[in-house]
Amino acid sequence: xxxxxxxxxxxxxxxxxxxxxxxxxxxxxxxxxxxxxxxxxxxxxxxxxxxxxxxxxxxxxxxxxxxxxxxxxxxxxxxxxxxxxxxxxxxxxxxxxxxxxxxxxxxxxxxxxxxxxxxxxxxxxxxxxxxxxxxxxxxxxxxxxxxxxxxxxxxxxxxxxxxxxxxxxxxxxxxxxxxxxxxxxxxxxxxxxxxxxxxxxxxxxxxxxxxxxxxxxxxxxxxxxxxxxxxxxxxxxxxxxxxxxxxxxxxxxxxxxxxxxxxxxxxxxxxxxxxxxxxxxxxxxxxxxxxxxxxxxxxxxxxxxxxxxxxxxxxxxxxxxxxxxxxxxxxxxxxxxxxxxxxxxxxxxxxxxxxxxxxxxxxxxxxxxxxxxxxxxxxxxxxxxxxxxxxxxxxxxxxxxxxxxxxxxxxxxxxxxxxxxxxxxxxxxxxxxxxxxxxxxxxxxxxxxxxxxxxxxxxxxxxxxxxxxxxxxxxxxxxxxxxxxxxxxxxxxxxxxxxxxxxxxxxxxxxxxxxxxxxxxxxxxxxxxxxxxxxxxxxxxxxxxxxxxxxxxxxxxxxxxxxxxxxxxxxxxxxxxxxxxxxxxxxxxxxxxxxxxxxxxxxxxxxxxxxxxxxxxxxxxxxxxxxxxxxxxxxxxxxxxxxxxxxxxxxxxxxxxxxxxxxxxxxxxxxxxxxxxxxxxxxxxxxxxxxxxxxxxxxxxxxxxxxxxxxxxxxxxxxxxxxxxxxxxxxxxxxxxxxxxxxxxxxxxxxxxxxxxxxxxxxxxxxxxxxxxxxxxxxxxxxxxxxxxxxxxxxxxxxxxxxxxxxxxxxxxxxxxxxxxxxxxxxxxxxxxxxxxxxxxxxxxxxxxxxxxxxxxxxxxxxxxxxxxxxxxxxxxxxxxxxxxxxxxxxxxxxxxx
Length: 898
Fold this sequence. Notes:
Its EC number is 4.2.1.3. With 898 residues, the chain is an alpha/beta fold. It has 31 helices and 34 strands.
């Protein structure tokens, strides 16, 4: 905690006889920080953090005053501050490599002659194992059991390693597989809204804040918990006590008015909000929701909106504490003394929203009347691509021509081996009620169950080509669906439980039935997926499915019944009922009154208390995982899941000097909005890929390849999968017709040999040739995948030059010692006429400073040189330190060793 208190604001708050020390914003305002009561609630949380951690070094009086002056400049000045979150949240895909790095740091500490036991999380860390279950089995009562069995069969090494970490590291807890997705477990159990800690014999109270190694950490913003997704690199620094360096953001106020109409759901609202904010442009900004519309909005609806912050591009989507916050804390089983503390603390700090109160000051605002929201989808490949349900059919037909060039085949159908049905373009081959955005929200889950009940009673069934699945975000959901009787109705339509965790949304949809996949690939069928998640980027959901649509859980069920995006759900029937009459969506859509009655009857405090009573214990499978105990990890050199990474090999106490980039070759020329899914290894591992060839060389059978996400603890697999996405296009490579082919291809220069990006990078490394990457706008869009930066580093890339970066990926590049540069407005690699054959040199790197202007010399194939101005996107002095040490982990390790 703080050693200074420049504004004399430390006070004591008495709650039912229990004293809590806290740093009073009201007192700080009286003592020099004028006007801070008008700050957005989210910035008040940041300001309290600075007051509490003021030490004259990482947080100074000047830093605090700069944040307080936000009222004057509304964030345009972008002052630098150091933020220390109360805790860190991880999922296992990103958590395993973070734990691998911590284990490697212990080895590195030994090499530097230090004490490896110093390497421990200094703030509480919760890792939820939720990203490893795959929908291999579906549509039957055994699906859950069989998927869990397969999960443990494939992930034994990883789970052993995680269990070792749970015992080896202090301040580190693991929520076992089969419990739920990290965001929902966080919302329902881990998050407290107000956190407490013992310091110097006192109990301090302060806002619950966090960073998470998943971009959808923002779901907790709905519970007034300020937090966002970071790369594993940043999370590790936070765990090790480093302040998270950031610029004070602009805050966009989103005013909500009115209330949702009958038949309109939270998913429709969040897709509308996402579209509006993407159009507004909120990358790197906070979004804070306010207005009278909050008076009629459940906590679950707020969490649904907050969850989608990465999709609308914001750092966070914050809702303040109010009566609904307290209601949810009570419902979800939080302790009564904690709820009392939340209310007392929030009111004492001016952090409690009441109806009719004065609006905070914002950088800018936009407004939505909830009454204007209509049933919606988003697709076919962008979360912000919202469209009215009424135009979904025509939108798909347009995309069939504009995106896929298949308009002439719109009515054509193709045979499926051994089946009586045929497949056509737009046939829904995946209908998934998947966790994350929606399964924390009982209204849409119960709505889906009631729609299934109504459909089953009419005699409707899912079409036989649809892969149906239900993967709840927590066991609470499964229990209330079971006790309400709605699970039987979902089962009747094929929506059996398949697992607890993140499935279809991250590409864990599992393989399609072989005959379906064969027909799709043989005939070029544009298959469709409809999922209740948040990500529908191309190549993400399934390698066999090109058109992906986000929708509410009831609409997922409806599309399973209709079986095609070429069915207009508003005006055309879903099918024929038992009485021979057509059944329309409006005939089976449940009323909001019925939904709310089911929630009142089945979603209870007792349910939450029982399901979270032994949350860290796990089932028999978890208890049977064998564990080794040692201060440092005993690496198994034959493991294909967990290996000691090379980041600390040969580390010395003093970092080597930084070098200019001379004569670099271009590894890739990439277009706009290249996501971390394109860059980072994700999804299935192809046998013919460099990663597949490596695994076969390690005697791993193809059926045991698993997926990239489960192998994030092995850098040998991951570096081979970097830039290997089946849909990525490297414009430095010419395919048939002159355009770039899909897939991770590169051309080695000057030989002109075409090969995989990995093979090209390794050849350049043998030739001691540095590499750079060029890209367009919003490079690194999407999930906070640390391997998008780690893999880039291990390929030998020294710098990435883009038109703009997504926030997390830019930070991760710096955290791995890679320089990010941006072109001046109006300049791009395309406007410069680059082909990939050029050489690139950048001088002045030894003396680089945050935001520095540099000139890149680009030597063209004919020998002419173009000098192009760039801006260095190292934004802060802390980031500069990380870069000079070769990354954030070597920097922290040297600090601890010293």
